[in-house]
Design a protein that fits this description.
This protein has one domain: Acyl-CoA thioesterase, double hotdog domain (Porin), CATH 2.40.160.210. The protein is about 20% helix and about 40% strand. It has helices at about 5-10, 35-50, 135-140, 145-155, 165-170, 190-200; strands at about 15-20, 20-25, 55-65, 75-85, 85-95, 100-110, 160, 175-185, 225-235, 245-255, 260-265, 270-285. A twelve-stranded antiparallel beta sheet has the order 1-2-4-5-6-3-9-12-11-10-8-7. The longest helix is centred in the N-terminal third of the chain and has 13 residues, at about 35-50. It starts with a helix and ends in a 6-residue tail after the last strand. The relative contact order is 0.15.
């Protein structure tokens, strides 16, 4: 297991402070703000700690309120909204210095049999072994800030292999759709709560980028102010995270300095394991006159 993967599992193991109250820390190599997927995953872990083990998360809906400071701990406060016959609902608020920075509501369900179908995984996608890593592509990106290149040069808990690569090297306007292969850099424990938390962690990766493709821009440009605003996720079927996942993403709309994005996470055997939707801030900065 890589050191980065060990660290990820470590930060997902929250400290219990009191009933319904937990504390988490951030990645040691975080940039100026906490990565959104980390807060999603930790908040989900906090909620799971208050739910009977026979009930598994099937959906979550979240809002990013303030940027998280990676230098100080995050406190997660869980509200037990409902414990019904089949469903359980929890609300989690992430707090730093007395202020809410993130909120999440998650619904859990007792497993039940039922009708089953799914849209098939796209077939015309190159194999991940034939593609460059995101780290290698950032090294070739002429518009990427040097600080971002150094950040991506560090060891990370996941390996990302983009299929659409033109936006790393050009400013051509592209269809707002992309495929990314993602694989964790170490084994994920074979338990459902950890697997869903890891899925929550990686679900924020590359998603917001999709809404910039139609405009020939990229999130890492200095002219763009970008931030996730909200995030929703649905967990369809369990699957071990021991191989590549294909993250299929598209952006149906951008307007009002916001980009809307959708994602579907497929296992390598074609199983659709989760769906995601997110709206984010995509604001062009106004350069001061010289």
């Amino acid at each position: 297991m890589s050191a980065a993967m060990q660290e990820l599992l470590s930060i997902l193991d929250l400290e219990e402070l009191e009933l319904n109250l937990f504390r988490g820390r951030s990645h040691a190599h975080s940039m100026k703000r906490v990565y959104g997927g980390q807060v999603i995953a930790q908040a989900l872990v906090a909620a799971q700690r208050t739910v009977d083990a026979t009930r598994l998360v099937h959906s979550l809906h979240a809002y990013f309120i303030l940027p998280g400071n990676p230098a100080i701990p995050i406190v997660y406060e869980v509200e037990r909204l409902r414990d019904g016959g089949s469903f359980t609902t929890r609300r989690v608020t992430a707090i730093q210095r007395g202020a809410a920075i993130f909120s999440l509501e998650a619904s859990f369900q007792v497993e039940e049999p039922g009708m089953t179908h799914q849209l098939p995984m796209p077939l015309d996608v190159p194999a991940p072994e034939t593609l460059k890593t995101q780290r290698e592509l950032f090294e070739l990106a002429p518009h990427a800030p040097e600080g971002l290149k150094r950040y991506w040069a560090r060891e990370r808990p996941l390996d990302i292999r983009p299929v659409v690569t033109e936006h790393y090297t050009t400013r051509e306007k592209l269809p707002p759709k992309q495929y990314n292969w993602i694989r964790m850099t170490g084994p994920v424990p074979d338990d459902r709560p950890t697997q869903t938390a890891v899925l929550g962690y990686l679900s924020d990766m590359t998603l917001l980028d999709t809404s910039t493709l139609a405009h020939g821009r990229a999130l890492f440009e200095d002219e763009i102010q970008a931030a996730s605003l909200d995030h929703a996720m649905w967990f369809h079927r369990p699957h071990k995270l021991d191989d590549w996942l294909l993250y299929v993403q598209d952006s149906p709309s951008s307007s009002g300095a916001r980009g809307f994005n959708r994602g579907a996470l497929y296992a390598s055997d074609g199983a659709l394991i989760a769906s995601v939707a997110q709206e984010g801030l995509i604001r062009l900065r106004t350069r001061p006159s010289r």
